[in-house]
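Fig. S4 source data, part A: sequence.
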Amino acid sequence: MKAKYICPILTSMNEDGSVNYEEMHAFYDRVLQAGIDGILVGGSAGEFYAFTYDEIRTFILDAVKYIGNRGVVIAGTGRMAKSETISLSNEALQAGADAVIVVGPYYSACNEDDVYAYYDEILQAVKGPVYLYNYSDRTGYDVSAETLLKLREAHDNLVGVKDTNPVLRHTQRYIQFLKPRFPDFQVYTGYDNNCIPSVISGGDGCIGAISNIRPDICADIIRSLASENISELTRLQRSIDKYFALYEVHTPFNPVMKWALKEMGLPVQEYCRVPIKPLTDKQKEALSSMANELWRKA
């Protein structure tokens, strides 16, 4: 079974909120050298929503240039203003990004017709491959399998979807609706624990944040899927299930993962962009048993 693991990279920031590019370059190197297929820069894990247009543009273009052809580069280009989404998407693609990924507008309530109309205009205007990012917990609405199929029927440059939905059946419906008509359409789960079962169901892999912490395990999952090694996949699934605690012990998960990487001696600062704050010493103490289990023993 062929699949890919893409890392939605965390962002190492200095105390003033600026991107620490030296550490980001080392971070890209570490993840790719571990065997991860590519990087999503400017995604939710990277706190894209807290960056100005110019800041995220610079961040994306730097990643495209630095990573080059060493791995797939997907740029997160969804902005609240449609014109900015289109402009940022086309500039990222012109610079060499393999694709862009676009989350729908958030805050405003959208019905299915609204969702279709928004992406229909985006897909007409963006000159290159686009992934749709479905994340109903953040946007407030779900993109149905029916709407996704309708969009793909109208636009050849809609190449795939990232489905950040904890319910596996939701991702399976995307697979079942899209794959019979468009076998090359790529369906990625956004949750690491759903990677193996979604690929078995016909999906294409995972764009999951645990790959920031344990890219080795995530790369092993892809290799074991390719060889269809059931006993190894069973072991890896149980390992990923344990690491899923990183998502659950604190909302949002970004500062927990940055803390873990910092303790592991890796090149990431714990600073986040407002409204996210780094963990306090008291919070870290409350999470020490998880830390002992997941990374301090490694």
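Fig. S4 source data, part B ends here. The beta strands are 4-8, 38-41, 72-76, 99-103, 130-134, 158-163, 186-189, 205-207.
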